[in-house]
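Priority: medium. Attachment 1 of 2:
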């Protein structure tokens, strides 16, 4: 495996690990919101969209390169015909086809998981905000309910 595909595979494994960590049920969204609100994240946030788009473009280019390689080695009937002159040509072509398919899967899943990871982080932050809003709205509703009860009692006393 070349250096670029080793880097993409490592990136894929890191994405899978992060997605699994984000999906752990015993870590509430409020905790993730606290983690995401550290000062270091606010400094990185200005570069986040640029980095995200750069990684997307890089993964798309690698994916398209892998598609090209798969198409190149899938349609190689000329090598099969000339296998009498070179006995290992068919196996060599099949090896290259396997490697290009492996690279296609690695880059495709890496691209997909990168998009899933961004959406997952967005949903976690939205859920944390909504849960905090829920608590505020619940306390406001309780205060309004108590005030309404007080006014109803006062109204009954005045009658």
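Attachment 2 of 2:
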């Amino acid at each position: 495996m070349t250096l670029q595909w080793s880097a993409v595979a490592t990136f894929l494994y890191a994405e899978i690990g992060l997605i699994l960590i984000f999906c752990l049920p015993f870590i509430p969204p409020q905790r993730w919101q606290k983690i995401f609100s550290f000062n270091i994240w606010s400094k990185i946030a200005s570069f986040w969209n640029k980095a995200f788009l750069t990684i997307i473009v890089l993964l798309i280019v690698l994916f398209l390169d892998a598609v090209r390689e798969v198409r190149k080695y899938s349609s190689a009937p000329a090598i099969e015909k000339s296998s009498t002159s070179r006995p290992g040509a068919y196996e060599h072509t099949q090896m290259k086809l396997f490697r290009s398919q492996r690279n296609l899967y690695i880059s495709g899943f890496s691209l997909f998981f990168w998009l899933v990871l961004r959406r997952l982080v967005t949903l976690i932050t939205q859920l944390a905000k909504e849960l905090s809003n829920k608590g505020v709205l619940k306390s406001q509703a309780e205060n309004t309910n108590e005030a309404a009860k007080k006014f109803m009692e006062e109204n009954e006393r005045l009658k």
